[in-house]
Amino acid sequence: MNEKKMKLIEAGMKLIAEKGYFNTSIQEIANEAGVSKGSFYIYFPSKEDFLTTAFLDFHRHITLEMKQAKSNGKTPKESFANQITVLIDYIYKHKDYIMMYFRENISIGQDMDNQICNLKIENFNWMKENLRDIYGNQIDVMIIDAVIQVEGLIHGYLKWLVIDDITIDKYRAGMFIVRRLDDLIKGMLENQEEPLVKASEIPSDYHNATEHERFKQPFLAALRKLESKVAELPLSRAKESQLYQVIQAIQNEADSNEPQTVVIQGLLAHFTGYPELNEEVKQIATVFDVELL
To answer: Tens digits of per-residue pLDDT, 30-46?
Structure first.
């Protein structure tokens, strides 16, 4: 991400955590970041767009840290425990920012709603993947109940940590929660329990979680790279701002329930004439199976 944009996000979230979303002005965010108010609008059309971008940046950072933690585990249980530890540590460090959402009950439109929906699907897929790594195919019949239970375990502790301000030993937390999960799963399997929630009973979006993830990750990687490269081009402020708005429009279209390929195709045409951007533009076109104009 562009360094100036990162400074704005860091400065803005610091102020919003301290003063609240509605009591923090764009001018104050710009002043805290050491840039002009006009620079804010180059990267963010509005304060609402700023908060959505900050939310995505928060999620992107924690996802990268958890992937690294997973690879450091010697066994599937240890890998899952490592990821839970990273999650608890990250949430604890940023709990003022998270409390801001609870405290002010912020609702900033369809884009954020789409992002939260995507996050729920990714969270489901993350838990399901770890459970299958640990227990193999034997968990399949109980997979939805298992996801619900591990979600309850983790979220219960996070709620107490964020809202009630308790302190958790993060180095013990991961394995402690995994051992409790192990007790639950082994009990269900040994007793040959019938599932309370069957896979056929959950929303259809969750059935497509793996497919959704395969689609989303390469697309987001290409889009973020495109965004980074635009910041390095010798463009006028107006042109740079226009291209950033096009990138956001592509993101919004991709997040819709039924992205229109003709819309994506038209948006990508804005990058014609910039050979430095060809690779990322082609990658996005490939994801949506569209021909470049």
So the answer is: 999 998 888 888 888 78
Average pLDDT value over all residues in the chain: 84
Q: How far apart are CA 116 and CA 184, in angstroms?
A: 28
Tokens 């430095």 identify what position? 276
CA atoms within 13 A on the CB side of 110: 8
HSE-CB at 85 with a 13 A cutoff on CA atoms is 20
User: Residue 227: CA atoms inside 13 Å, Cβ hemisphere, count?
Assistant: 24
User: d(Cα 184, Cα 158) in Å, to the nearest integer?
Assistant: 19
Number of neighbours of residue 138 by Cβ within 10 angstroms: 10
Cα 111 from Cα 50, distance rounded (Å): 12
Is residue 6 within a helix (H) or strand (E), and if so which, with residue range? Answer: helix 3-19
Q: Helix, strand, coil proportions of the chain in percent (round to 5)?
A: 80, 0, 20
Give the pLDDT band (50/70/90) at residue 7: confident
Higher pLDDT, 103 or 7: 7
**Closest CA relative to residue 233, chosen from 198, 271, 202, 195:** 271
Environment class of 33 (CB within 10 Å of its CB; exposed 0-12, middle 13-18, buried 19+): buried
Q: Is the pTM of this model over 0.70?
A: no
How far is the CA of 232 from the CAs of 29, 38, 227, in angstroms?
23, 18, 9
Question: Cβ neighbours of residue 5 under 8 Å, at least 6 residues apart?
Answer: 43, 231
